[in-house]
Amino acid sequence: MIPQSFISDLLNRVDIVDVVGRYVQLKKGGANYMGLCPFHSEKSPSFTVSPTKQFYHCFGCGAHGTSIGFLIEYSGMGFVDAVKDLAQGVGMVVPEQDDRIPPAQRAQMQAQSLALSDAMTQAAEYYKMQLRQAPAAIGYLKGRGLTGEIAARFSLGYAPDGWDNLRSVFRDYDAPVLAEAGLVIDKVDEEGRRLKRYDRFRERVMFPIRNTKGQVIAFGGRIMEQGEPKYLNSPETPLFSKGHELYGLFEARQAIRDAGYVLVTEGYMDVVALAQMGFPQAVATLGTACTTTHVQKLLRQTDNVIFSFDGDKAGRRAARRALEACLSHVSDNKTIKFLFLPAEHDPDSYIREFGAPAFEQQVAEAMPLSQFLLKEVAADFDLSEPEGRARVQFEAKPMLQAMAPSALRLQIVRGLATMTQSSPGEIEALCELSKPVAEVRRAPPRSARPEPMGLELQIVRHLVAHPALALEIDESGLAAFDSFGPEQSERLRQLVSAARALGPQGNFASLAMHLKEQGNEYDAIITEISSESAESDFEADRQYVASAIRQIKLDALKAELDQLFTSGKTAAEIGDRYREISAMQDQLRKEAEVGLPGR
Fold this sequence. Notes:
Family: Belongs to the DnaG primase family.
Number of helices: 25
Radius of gyration: 31 Å
Protein name: DNA primase
Number of domains: 5
Cofactor: Zn(2+)
Pfam families: DnaB_bind (PF10410), DnaG_DnaB_bind (PF08278), DNAG_N (PF08275), Toprim_2 (PF13155), Zn_ribbon_DnaG (PF01807)
Subunit structure: Monomer. Interacts with DnaB.
Number of strands: 16
Strand order of the largest sheet: 1-2-3-4-5
Shape: globular
Largest sheet: 5 strands, antiparallel
Strand content: 5-15%
Helix content: 40-55%
Low-confidence stretches: 440-447
Distance between the termini: 33 Å
């Protein structure tokens, strides 16, 4: 858990114009910067970046957020990775509550990571240069229909024949970092002593594997002639975990947004060949089954994922594993489909034989997850027999349990019920599903708080725009909020607490990010503030909030005074309280005259 105060400090140190400017061409336009939105297709710029608010906002699609949010949405990073990426750029070390690694050891780990990354970059440049002078490799790629332009886009390379070619690249060929990076292999005797060292990749076309920041973290090498293994991948290293990475994702990010979906294939050559043939939105798993982490990364890029598998038995097995990896991420606003090609084809061979339009038709006719799930669980059983129907329910149970309650799960339940001659309620009971919805006739009423209005709305708006104002509100100020009503008072108190947690350096960007994580209650206010051309004046907002709180207190005292005279109390009792109220009213009026904060 990264402390909120660190997030606030980080967002104060980074410049969102620099962060967004790495990926979007920005031009100065008044107080802000403008550019074409990277999250939807547009011809005239409606995407603004505010250096004063440290916030971006698109007037076209409504996308908005902080530097952290931009990296998450654009690069597909997780929250922690985005924070670490920004922190590294400004020389900050991310604190973690469960991080017990001593500072010296952490510094050593960071140095090792940098050394590994540098080694991979040097190796990638070497392989790329070797391809230029390797006629056989160039001929192989041309034979697969690839142009020099597409080879350059994916930084393809070539590892020549020979046992220690990397000796010419690295001054210290015996350095441990080369083995840690998976670039060389150490042959050792039974006692663990190294006998010799040699290059891992030899006589192979090289496919650099990049992370979401574009750094080379591993390689895939394909043999050009007959031989095994056809593909040789880098081993797991501190930089590379094949269950977490997707080949081509870095190169495909913008194409995925433009196309509105991502196409997941099984091999490097599928990705490169599809990009060559007009489908640059393709990525591939790295010689391993699709994992839940893969699915999570894909759904950060787009709401529509299409898995493309070979039509043979191996392709079906891979599709089943992908299906299982998807289940925990299934939701009503995401679409996941499965495309199966004829048994003798992969995407590369299919598109070359039948052309891009035919492949596009296959994509359009891909099988929805719900249909594939029901087809899979029923594939091996006879639905005309009670035993067969029971086995289908048994097979479906863990899959349904892996899914969160949703409308789509209900639709699958209904499909399974029809298939097995049951009712949806019986399926939910048999499968012991969490939060069953089949028998619910009407959704319970929502218990949302009423929208802020009038003076409350203005206080909320000013606090969101300038969180540091919350530090000037004391307990009597918080108590004044009770006059709005219990739900409104609770909202204001929670907002003040969240703003205070950011500390004196708290700003709109950091508070907006925190509020969005809690839900959508403040979305309209955040959108309104982020879309304004200039930041509101802090001192003017400070005076407004102070004045508003004083007015609330004065109104509450006046109401109490009115009730006092109709309370039936004795003249002495009324007199004592009347003098107290009058003194408080005088004090508040004096504060108003000199412009003191509302306390």
